[in-house]
Amino acid sequence: MSFATADLYDKYEDQLQIATPIFNDYGGNIQFSGPASTVKVFADNSLVRAALEEAGDGRVLVVDGGGSLNCALLGDMLADLGFKNGWVGVIVYGCIRDSAAIANMKIGVKALNTNPKKSVKRGEGQRNVSVSFADVTIAPGNYIYADVDGIVISQNKLDLS
User: Fold this and answer.
1) Total tally of structural domains belonging to the chain
2) What is the pTM of this model?
3) Burial letters for 96-128: b for 16+ Cβ neighbours within 10 Å, e otherwise?
4) Contacts of 56 (CB under 8 A, 6+ apart)
């Protein structure tokens, strides 16, 4: 279903959080929405992989990488894995890599920037916890609506009609 975050804001202003506009679009789908699943990691994408290996069921994976620009937390192989497993998007408060390949994939990807350096794999971090960045707090199950204008978050699914 089509939507515009600006229109959602106009209709649901009092119910939405608006992420500070610090994210760039990298995925082939600029517009995506779904319930949030969260991971909180630092320079380790093991939990990102573990989440994307599961059935996405139309969810958006929100990755709190601490805003670090030191390495990528998502690359083309993980983005493709997410797409194949039914994830509609990934928001990374950190970096991605393989951006040219990800641009051709039918998955939404927003991140701060790119970095060719891969992350470590220690299995460290947390899953399904509330994460805070870009002046928003996202809890698992919150609804994410993202498009070219930005990211809005609602505690509940919005009526898009």
Assistant:
1) 1
2) 0.97
3) bbbbeebeebebbbbbbebbeeebeeeeebeee
4) 37, 82, 85, 86, 87, 88
Q: Answer for the pair 74, 90: CB distance below 8 angstroms, yes or no.
A: yes
Domain range for 75 is 5-12+22-152
Task: Note the pLDDT of residue 161.
Answer: 81
17 falls within a domain:
no
- Mean pLDDT, the chain cut into blocks of 10 residues (161 residues total): 93 97 98 98 97 98 98 98 98 98 98 97 96 98 98 96 81
| Distance separating alpha carbons of residues 62 and 108, to the nearest angstrom | 12
Instruction: Identify whether 159 is part of a domain.
Output: no
Q: One-letter amino acid identity for 150?
A: G
**DSSP H or E segment with residue 145:** strand 143-147
Residues counted in the chain: 161
pLDDT at res. 111: 98
Residue 79 has a pLDDT of 98
